[in-house]
Design the sequence.
């Protein structure tokens, strides 16, 4: 037993290996006296850190410990964030749908008002291949309404143009719906082009035009 | 339940074993500065000391239910976890670390832990106990404990026979225990 007791300091320091370590660990299982002495030596050793001035660790260490010890709470926070984003997305989608509905209703009301006028004339707006993609309604005194079959593709807008013979086209405005009210007076042709948001100084992708007379 | 930060460590570990995260926070508040100082001393690297400090408290959290008060104090339990992790890190390195420069007191990351309920009495007591050891014994003990040097490494560093190293280390630890209030030991030990 005395022989084994002499091994206890090395064991407490973690310096015991091999057959000596195995022998001591077996003895520790059966000897309360050895275990008690080992505890006392370990207790003395583990007071050595007290000889050092304490140093406060940076706050990020505790934050990382929390992340690692409470992943479920972190997951719940993450899930809550996803739900909030989803709710905002759904809300945004709902708002978007409502705005689309409002735009459609306004367009229908405008078209209905024009069609209710017996003086209104109309003609098809065709592309260079002769295919129609919309209609222009007009009145003799100058006002007109462009009605296109489809809204512009995402990221693009329609731009309306008026043009005199042998002159550059003049921008009459951009629109992202299917209906555009303007005035053809003073122009020989009315046209429509596809443009980037905000429009362009000159038509970059002309779709087609109609003569005004 | 926590009660104003006056619970003994053993009660905190008992709460922790039941999943009370505030107990872990309180233990971290009490002992992270001392453990961080130990890890800085052992690893000589702030980055690695932070990493092992994290690992130590995560292990404490996971093994809280394994703690038995009759087998030692909570600090001994925690510091043993931290020291063992640091020793593994030291032994996985190819070369011993260079000594870290003294802590920069002006760095917010290296603020001394004076804000906590730091009781210098314990520090003075342990330092006095260390000072009572033979200087060469004290150096061997500190190199074995803080630097993780093995018997053979110490024998090579100090150009002493292996048996002498073992004898001096045992003597140093037995005396330290006695000076810190444990059983008396003869000066010849």
Sequence:
């Amino acid at each position: 037993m005395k022989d084994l007791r002499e091994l206890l300091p090395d064991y407490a320091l973690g310096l015991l290996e091999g057959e000596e370590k195995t022998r001591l660990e077996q003895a520790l299982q059966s000897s309360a006296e050895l275990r008690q002495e080992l505890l006392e030596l370990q207790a003395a050793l583990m007071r050595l850190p007290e000889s050092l001035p304490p140093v406060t660790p940076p706050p990020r260490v505790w934050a990382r410990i929390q992340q690692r010890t409470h992943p479920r709470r972190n997951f719940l926070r993450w899930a809550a964030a996803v739900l909030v984003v989803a709710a905002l997305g759904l809300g945004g989608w709902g708002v978007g749908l409502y705005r689309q509905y409002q735009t459609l209703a306004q367009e229908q009301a405008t078209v209905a008002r024009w069609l209710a006028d017996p003086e209104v004339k109309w003609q098809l707006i065709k592309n260079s291949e002769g295919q129609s993609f919309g209609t222009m309604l007009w009145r003799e005194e100058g006002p007109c309404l462009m009605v296109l079959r489809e809204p512009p593709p995402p990221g693009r807008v329609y731009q309306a143009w008026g043009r005199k013979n042998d002159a550059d086209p003049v921008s009459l405005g951009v629109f992202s719906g299917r209906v555009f009210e303007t005035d053809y007076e003073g122009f020989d042709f009315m046209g429509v082009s596809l443009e980037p948001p905000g429009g362009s100084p000159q038509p970059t992708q002309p779709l087609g035009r109609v003569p005004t007379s | 339940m926590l009660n104003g930060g006056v619970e003994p460590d053993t009660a905190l570990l008992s709460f922790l074993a039941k999943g009370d995260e505030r107990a872990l926070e309180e233990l971290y508040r009490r002992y992270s500065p001392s453990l961080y100082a130990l890890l800085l001393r052992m690893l000589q690297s702030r980055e690695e000391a932070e990493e092992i400090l994290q690992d130590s408290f995560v292990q404490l959290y996971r093994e809280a239910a394994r703690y038995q008060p009759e087998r030692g104090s909570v600090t001994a339990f925690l510091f043993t976890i931290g020291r063992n992790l640091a020793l593994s890190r030291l032994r996985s390195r190819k070369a011993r670390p260079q000594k870290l420069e003294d802590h920069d007191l002006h760095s917010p990351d290296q603020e001394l832990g004076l804000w906590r309920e730091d009781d210098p009495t314990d520090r003075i007591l342990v330092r006095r106990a260390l000072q009572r050891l033979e200087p060469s014994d004290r150096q061997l003990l500190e190199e074995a404990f803080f630097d993780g040097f093995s018997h053979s490494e110490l024998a090579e560093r100090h150009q002493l026979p292996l048996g002498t190293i073992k004898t001096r280390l045992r003597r140093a630890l037995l005396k330290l225990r006695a000076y810190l209030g444990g059983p008396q030991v003869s000066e010849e030990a």
Summary: The domain at 120-179 of chain B is CATH 1.10.10.10 (Arc Repressor Mutant, subunit A). Chain B touches chain A through 64 residues (CB under 8 Å).
